[in-house]
Design brief:
It is built from 4 helices and 14 strands. The chain is of the alpha+beta class and 186 residues long. The strands form 4 sheets. It has a 7-stranded antiparallel beta sheet with strand order 1-12-9-14-7-4-2. It has a 3-stranded antiparallel beta sheet with strand order 11-10-13, with no helix packed on it. A two-stranded antiparallel ribbon has the order 3-8. It is globular and about 40 Å long. The termini are close together.
Protein backbone atom coordinates (compact mmCIF):
# COMPACT_ATOMS: atom_id res chain seq x y z
CA UNK A 1 0.00 0.00 0.00
CA UNK A 2 1.03 3.63 -0.26
CA UNK A 3 3.61 4.93 2.18
CA UNK A 4 2.77 8.63 1.98
CA UNK A 5 -0.40 9.87 3.65
CA UNK A 6 -1.32 12.61 1.11
CA UNK A 7 -0.60 13.60 -2.45
CA UNK A 8 -2.07 16.52 -4.36
CA UNK A 9 -2.93 15.59 -7.94
CA UNK A 10 -1.98 18.04 -10.71
CA UNK A 11 -5.66 18.72 -11.47
CA UNK A 12 -7.50 21.94 -10.67
CA UNK A 13 -11.19 21.65 -11.44
CA UNK A 14 -13.50 24.52 -12.32
CA UNK A 15 -14.98 25.52 -8.95
CA UNK A 16 -17.93 27.44 -10.41
CA UNK A 17 -18.97 24.51 -12.62
CA UNK A 18 -18.65 22.10 -9.69
CA UNK A 19 -20.60 24.34 -7.34
CA UNK A 20 -23.33 25.10 -9.88
CA UNK A 21 -23.78 21.42 -10.65
CA UNK A 22 -23.94 20.37 -7.01
CA UNK A 23 -26.29 23.26 -6.23
CA UNK A 24 -28.58 22.08 -9.04
CA UNK A 25 -29.07 18.86 -7.05
CA UNK A 26 -30.57 20.91 -4.22
CA UNK A 27 -33.91 19.11 -4.34
CA UNK A 28 -32.33 15.70 -3.79
CA UNK A 29 -32.35 13.92 -0.46
CA UNK A 30 -29.01 13.73 1.32
CA UNK A 31 -28.79 10.40 3.18
CA UNK A 32 -27.43 10.50 6.72
CA UNK A 33 -24.26 8.43 7.18
CA UNK A 34 -25.16 5.34 9.12
CA UNK A 35 -22.20 5.14 11.57
CA UNK A 36 -23.48 7.85 13.96
CA UNK A 37 -20.73 7.24 16.53
CA UNK A 38 -18.16 8.61 14.03
CA UNK A 39 -19.47 12.18 13.96
CA UNK A 40 -21.53 14.89 15.60
CA UNK A 41 -23.91 17.09 13.68
CA UNK A 42 -25.02 16.43 10.12
CA UNK A 43 -22.82 14.27 7.88
CA UNK A 44 -24.64 13.06 4.80
CA UNK A 45 -24.16 11.70 1.30
CA UNK A 46 -25.59 11.62 -2.22
CA UNK A 47 -24.41 8.48 -4.03
CA UNK A 48 -23.31 9.08 -7.61
CA UNK A 49 -22.52 5.41 -8.19
CA UNK A 50 -23.96 2.35 -6.49
CA UNK A 51 -23.69 -1.39 -6.69
CA UNK A 52 -25.90 -2.59 -9.49
CA UNK A 53 -27.87 -4.76 -7.07
CA UNK A 54 -28.54 -1.64 -4.91
CA UNK A 55 -27.82 -3.10 -1.49
CA UNK A 56 -28.15 0.00 0.76
CA UNK A 57 -25.04 -0.61 2.88
CA UNK A 58 -22.95 -0.79 -0.28
CA UNK A 59 -23.94 2.68 -1.41
CA UNK A 60 -21.34 4.31 0.81
CA UNK A 61 -18.23 2.20 0.41
CA UNK A 62 -16.72 -0.37 -1.87
CA UNK A 63 -15.51 -2.93 0.65
CA UNK A 64 -17.28 -5.75 -1.23
CA UNK A 65 -16.03 -5.55 -4.79
CA UNK A 66 -17.26 -9.02 -5.74
CA UNK A 67 -20.52 -9.45 -7.57
CA UNK A 68 -22.24 -6.64 -9.38
CA UNK A 69 -20.51 -3.61 -10.85
CA UNK A 70 -20.85 -0.04 -9.71
CA UNK A 71 -23.18 1.89 -11.99
CA UNK A 72 -24.20 5.53 -12.32
CA UNK A 73 -27.11 6.66 -10.20
CA UNK A 74 -29.75 9.08 -11.53
CA UNK A 75 -27.95 11.79 -9.52
CA UNK A 76 -24.73 11.33 -11.53
CA UNK A 77 -26.70 11.43 -14.76
CA UNK A 78 -27.65 15.02 -13.80
CA UNK A 79 -23.98 15.97 -13.42
CA UNK A 80 -22.18 16.21 -16.78
CA UNK A 81 -19.21 18.13 -15.36
CA UNK A 82 -18.64 15.62 -12.56
CA UNK A 83 -19.01 12.84 -15.16
CA UNK A 84 -16.25 14.50 -17.20
CA UNK A 85 -14.04 14.59 -14.10
CA UNK A 86 -14.59 10.87 -13.59
CA UNK A 87 -13.57 10.22 -17.20
CA UNK A 88 -10.15 11.78 -16.48
CA UNK A 89 -9.37 8.91 -14.11
CA UNK A 90 -8.29 6.00 -16.28
CA UNK A 91 -9.20 3.31 -13.80
CA UNK A 92 -12.18 1.42 -12.42
CA UNK A 93 -14.46 3.57 -10.31
CA UNK A 94 -16.13 2.07 -7.29
CA UNK A 95 -18.06 4.23 -4.88
CA UNK A 96 -18.38 7.85 -6.02
CA UNK A 97 -20.40 10.26 -3.92
CA UNK A 98 -20.90 13.76 -2.66
CA UNK A 99 -20.32 14.02 1.09
CA UNK A 100 -21.58 16.96 3.12
CA UNK A 101 -20.38 17.92 6.59
CA UNK A 102 -22.82 20.60 7.67
CA UNK A 103 -21.85 23.78 9.47
CA UNK A 104 -20.93 23.04 13.08
CA UNK A 105 -20.43 19.30 12.42
CA UNK A 106 -17.31 17.23 12.83
CA UNK A 107 -15.95 13.72 12.90
CA UNK A 108 -14.23 11.89 15.69
CA UNK A 109 -10.67 10.75 15.04
CA UNK A 110 -11.19 8.08 12.39
CA UNK A 111 -9.19 5.17 11.00
CA UNK A 112 -11.17 4.08 7.95
CA UNK A 113 -10.65 0.43 7.10
CA UNK A 114 -13.32 0.20 4.39
CA UNK A 115 -11.06 0.35 1.34
CA UNK A 116 -9.56 -2.71 -0.29
CA UNK A 117 -5.81 -3.15 -0.59
CA UNK A 118 -5.89 -2.04 -4.24
CA UNK A 119 -8.11 1.00 -3.77
CA UNK A 120 -7.42 4.66 -3.16
CA UNK A 121 -9.69 7.47 -2.02
CA UNK A 122 -9.56 10.78 -3.89
CA UNK A 123 -11.23 13.95 -2.60
CA UNK A 124 -12.23 17.07 -4.50
CA UNK A 125 -13.52 19.93 -2.31
CA UNK A 126 -16.57 21.50 -3.94
CA UNK A 127 -17.68 23.87 -1.15
CA UNK A 128 -15.46 24.76 1.78
CA UNK A 129 -14.79 27.69 4.09
CA UNK A 130 -11.83 29.05 6.09
CA UNK A 131 -13.07 27.40 9.30
CA UNK A 132 -12.84 23.83 7.96
CA UNK A 133 -10.03 21.82 9.55
CA UNK A 134 -8.82 18.56 8.03
CA UNK A 135 -6.17 16.74 10.02
CA UNK A 136 -4.35 13.64 8.80
CA UNK A 137 -1.79 12.12 11.18
CA UNK A 138 -2.24 15.27 13.31
CA UNK A 139 -1.09 17.49 10.44
CA UNK A 140 -3.32 19.95 8.55
CA UNK A 141 -4.24 19.14 4.96
CA UNK A 142 -4.80 22.48 3.23
CA UNK A 143 -7.42 21.54 0.65
CA UNK A 144 -8.89 24.28 -1.53
CA UNK A 145 -12.08 24.16 -3.59
CA UNK A 146 -11.40 22.47 -6.93
CA UNK A 147 -8.21 20.73 -5.72
CA UNK A 148 -7.78 16.99 -6.11
CA UNK A 149 -6.15 14.98 -3.30
CA UNK A 150 -5.27 11.41 -2.42
CA UNK A 151 -5.55 10.90 1.36
CA UNK A 152 -4.53 7.73 3.19
CA UNK A 153 -7.70 7.53 5.24
CA UNK A 154 -6.63 4.34 7.00
CA UNK A 155 -4.36 6.67 9.00
CA UNK A 156 -5.83 8.78 11.84
CA UNK A 157 -7.81 11.72 10.52
CA UNK A 158 -10.61 14.07 11.50
CA UNK A 159 -12.62 16.83 9.91
CA UNK A 160 -14.28 19.79 11.63
CA UNK A 161 -16.50 22.38 10.02
CA UNK A 162 -16.71 25.34 12.36
CA UNK A 163 -17.77 27.68 9.56
CA UNK A 164 -21.20 29.01 8.66
CA UNK A 165 -21.49 27.07 5.39
CA UNK A 166 -21.52 23.37 4.57
CA UNK A 167 -18.41 21.48 3.50
CA UNK A 168 -19.07 19.32 0.42
CA UNK A 169 -16.50 17.00 -1.15
CA UNK A 170 -16.66 14.84 -4.24
CA UNK A 171 -15.27 11.51 -2.96
CA UNK A 172 -13.98 8.84 -5.35
CA UNK A 173 -12.93 5.32 -4.40
CA UNK A 174 -10.79 4.12 -7.30
CA UNK A 175 -8.85 1.08 -8.39
CA UNK A 176 -5.13 1.45 -7.70
CA UNK A 177 -3.99 0.61 -11.23
CA UNK A 178 -0.84 1.62 -13.14
CA UNK A 179 -2.39 4.92 -14.26
CA UNK A 180 -3.04 5.98 -10.65
CA UNK A 181 0.35 4.64 -9.55
CA UNK A 182 2.04 6.91 -12.11
CA UNK A 183 0.35 9.96 -10.61
CA UNK A 184 1.22 8.85 -7.11
CA UNK A 185 4.83 8.15 -8.16
CA UNK A 186 4.68 4.48 -7.09
Amino acid sequence: MLQTDRIKFPFQFDVKKLQDEVSSLGGLQWDQLFVRKDYKGDWSVISLTAKEDNKPKELLDSIDLEGSDFVSTPSLQKCPYISSILELFECDKYSVRLMKLAQGAGTVRLLDQNLGENEVRILVPVFSNPLVTILLNDSVVDMKEGDCWYLKISDPHLIRNEGETDLIHLVLDLDLNDWIRDFLKL
